[in-house]
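Data card: per-record layout.
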Amino acid sequence: MGARDYPGRWWHMLDDGRMQCDLCPRDCRLHEGQRGACFVRKRENDAMVLTTYGRSSGFCIDPVEKKPLNHFYPGSSILSFGTAGCNLACKFCQNWDISKSRDMDRLADEASPETIAQAALAYGCKSVAFTYNDPVIFAEYAMDIADACHEHGVKAVAVTAGYIHDVPRREFYAKMDAANVDLKGFTDAFYAKLCAAKLGPVLDTLAYLRHETDVWFEITTLLIPGKNDSNEEIEAECKWIMKELGPGVPLHFSAFHPDYKMMDIPRTPASTLRRARDIALAEGLRYVYTGNVHDAEGGTTYCAGCREPLIVRDWYRIEDYRVTPEGRCPGCGAAVPGCYESFRSAFGPQRVPVVLRA
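The structure for this 358-residue chain is written out next.
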């Protein structure tokens, strides 16, 4: 098989002759020639194939804070890319031109795992991010890239909705160094109506990451006016995180802007993000951030011990950095959970498009 129809994993045949995809909770059941809901996993000649292996919708170098990851080598650069398709159907998707694409010809950049790893090295990137669309649906490609990156000392990061079954979940995250998981809301009704999915599997992924792996992970919730921004829902989410994951998991509240099928919903006011952050801090979470707004307080990492500002951010720009390479406050010595190294200078807030050459 060529790069565009790579053998897929995690499937079995049913008694009625259909093939069931066992990658995610959608459990798509396919006749010959059919694609799953993600569009990129296809039954072909009675086997599963991944139609986007080795193909990308484009590459950019970003600050790692844009993923967003505030405790994973802050200030470093990350080589970011996605493919096409998604296994969720979020009406508010802000990368819908990629995630909902049915045009495989838009995947203009072809790159082998080794090419991507070498590019990260050449551009001085600390890590590679699978982002823009959900890497779960191109797990085989992402895992191979992670292996190639690790051979060169480059980290692998998954930006994902966490909608994946247990067996592939274990194999997928065994290859990842860090993840940002979108917890899109905290009710089954929100997931059903706006994402065509379920909340439970996402909570399972978060609990798995916390209790059964060493993967560094952070959580993002996009707050949508009138949909998932009530005090009650935010409180319920924060109480669950505090109880099940602990106070040290960073939580990002991000601002929605009108997009895709929700153009009639207004932008999220900055006051909503600050309210959500206050609720989370009151529940005991230690590292709570606001995103997609200029908010120095909501972007700053504070010491959980002495409350001194340790990493001062405005948007994606780092204004001051005081965490030790060992991940501690230089004042009181309290640990700052995450992954750190000696800090020289930040990559900065810019996004730099790049073209990879095989």
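Known properties of this structure: The first helix runs from residue 96 to 99. The chain has a mean pLDDT of 93.

See the next section for split statistics.
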